[in-house]
Amino acid sequence: MVTRKDIANRAGVSVSVVSRALNNSGYVNKEKKKEIIKIADELNYRPNPIAMSLQQQKTKQLLYYSKDLYNSFNIELYEGMIEEAEKNGYVMLINGRLNFDVIPHLMIDGIILPNQYVTMQYLDRIGKNYHLPVVTASYGDDIYFPAAVPFIESDLFKGTINALEYLREKGHRKIALVTPYNFTANNSRTYAWKYFMQYELEENIEKYFLGISKESLHNDQRVLCFEEEKSENDFDIPESFYEKGMLAADIFKERQLDATAVLLFNDEMAIGFSKHIKKLGYTIPEDLSIMGIDGLEIGQYMEPKLTSLEIQSRIMGAKCVQILISILEGKKEKCATYVPTLILERESVKNLLE
Amino acid sequence: MVTRKDIANRAGVSVSVVSRALNNSGYVNKEKKKEIIKIADELNYRPNPIAMSLQQQKTKQLLYYSKDLYNSFNIELYEGMIEEAEKNGYVMLINGRLNFDVIPHLMIDGIILPNQYVTMQYLDRIGKNYHLPVVTASYGDDIYFPAAVPFIESDLFKGTINALEYLREKGHRKIALVTPYNFTANNSRTYAWKYFMQYELEENIEKYFLGISKESLHNDQRVLCFEEEKSENDFDIPESFYEKGMLAADIFKERQLDATAVLLFNDEMAIGFSKHIKKLGYTIPEDLSIMGIDGLEIGQYMEPKLTSLEIQSRIMGAKCVQILISILEGKKEKCATYVPTLILERESVKNLLE
DNA sequence: CTGAAAGCGCTAACAA
DNA sequence: TTGTTAGCGCTTTCAG
């Protein structure tokens, strides 16, 4: 391994001169500088990032502690992060296993956590004693969540309202909501839907709410199969959105709901729901319009192509990194940042007014 | 930040004693040792991984340089790696962007590259001057690939033969192969298929070969749309397996192929193919049996559930890490390691003999 | 059994 | 403009 010492020896100068030459800092004789750079090049010198990190007390590395790498939404988020990190001279790492114990072993300057629940757990288990700037990339799951750390979230309250407005414009009034959680869950999607249905459309929100959770379904056998419904507190368990979507279709049919449109918690659920509801004899969008949330690319592979409320994941990822870096640099940052959503119009919503 | 010096001060000893006590190395008075550990605990001391890395000249971190995080096969591979790394006291990082320039900035002891092409590029651009143990996780893409670095691959030659034998047992003889590459491509799947069709089944291999590449399709307009067909050498472009599978279905029908079964290069292609061929009026498996390669979980969501040749990705990932670590530890390692495949029997293959 | 000292590769303050 | 020095947090040798 080539070090600055080697270069110094070759050039007949001291290491500090080499350092200054290579870092473009302080004074170095122009001739010598050229010479030093030439030698460094010849020797194929690479600064040792570990030594530099030790000396500078920073690593220029950031970590995205993702919950679920199988979910392409998270990967898109990560790609947004990579890009922004790169621009700022940082390396963006990712770790797919939520094992907090490894964090102190990692050589990083800051962490991006995947949602508020993980953040809470982190604060509980590690964060108290181990300070490392943290930022949360939130889906907007819980509107009452205490902002313990700065968070960046998709503006899903406004977004859901927009989605519902879009459906209303197409003539829909009876719009069911399918979510994997309870009626009382404080996520902004549910919240916005309740508001809109109740005050804008004046429809019965109990009737059109389909929560695929053990509470909402009164311990229906079919929902108790899901791992995440069995345990209470384990946020490590990936959620079965797809399967829950399928179950929702069964229940939709059983209840003979007269909704003309269904808004689903996310695209995965929407895909599971659509697949199954078609099997049960419904035609999309003729009999029933479907709208997802996320705007994933795979929605295109559905038949018909899934209309969705797009969360701009890349932009969100970039924002997370921006904010984390500005915290690292000691700049103050406001605690909540909202990224707007977009209506992604494809084929699964019918215009009833035409 | 708490350092060993702080602990030493508190305990009234020197740093070396603290070091020895905390590392369980050398002699330390039992009483003092207890005391030191207690203080470390109270102060919530965490060894600085950077300082340790600098001193020990190793980071205990490994990198999986994945090509495509959207492909769940790679994620499974990664999970196998994580587990094995953890067992051996290593941290497994992953980076989704193939930008070789960041590698020298990373604090890692070794790299796992995603296939031989990437390995070649790596060797070309970085590896020559920058030594860092490297291992290749190969799909078995090219049987003539020069083993420049140790590689771990799924035994797809044997596996493909097994898959074809399985199909033969079910009464299939006319078995088409769908791949995204040329007839002359030296990947072991194609190679094994050619062999089996020619010598075991004595069928016409030209007739039943469906290569979805510009060469195989004589610059058919429809294949020229794919990004990866436009450029010659860029291995960074993700491949459009799904879409190519759909195109293959069109071509299968156009040619009025009388195959009773189709073996596809991977599950993604198989899913695209199946979806589209159903649309074209075929029923699976009644009219046509389908078999994929990979054994992905999403194959279960297809209708009917996809029968596939399972690549044991977790085991492969673990093997990669094992070998990389043993190289790091100076143990010799043989260059080629093969991981066996498994027939994953589901619903998309019909038994013609019943 | 303990502690001083050297050193991992680098930077930065300061003296020359 | 340059080189010496100290130090980032840690380990390890070696004299006490």
Fold blueprint:
2 copies of one chain form a homodimer.
Chain A: H1 4-11, H2 15-23, H3 30-42, H4 49-56, E1 61-65, H5 72-87, E2 91-95, E3 110-113, H6 116-127, E4 134-138, E5 151-154, H7 156-169, E6 175-179, H8 188-200, H9 205-208, E7 209-211, H10 221-224, H11 227-230, H12 241-254, E8 261-264, H13 267-279, E9 289-294, E10 307-311, H14 313-328, E11 336-339, E12 341-344
Helix pairs in contact in A: 1-2, 1-3, 2-3, 5-14, 7-8, 12-13
Chain A binds a DNA duplex (16 and 16 nucleotides) through α2 and α4.
Strand content of chain A: 15-25%
- Show the largest interface: A-B, 37 and 37 residues
Mass-distribution shape of chain A:
elongated
Number of strands of chain A: 12
- Helix tally of chain A equals 14
Residue share in helix of chain A: 40-55%
Which strand order does the major sheet of chain A show? 2-1-3-4-5-11
Distance between the termini of chain A: 72 Å
Major β-sheet annotation of chain A: 6 strands, parallel
Low-confidence stretches of chain A: none
Subunit organisation of the chains: homodimer
What structural category arises from helix and sheet content of chain A?
alpha/beta
Rg over CA atoms of chain A:
26 Å
Order of helices and strands of chain A: HHHHEHEEHEEHEHHEHHHEHEEHEE
The overall pLDDT of chain A, averaged over residues, is 91
Could you give a quick summary of the protein structure above?
The structure is a homodimer of 354-residue chains. By secondary structure, chain A is an alpha/beta fold.
Which descriptors would you attach to this protein?
alpha/beta; homodimer; DNA-binding; 6-stranded parallel β-sheet; 354 residues; 14 helices; 6-stranded mixed β-sheet
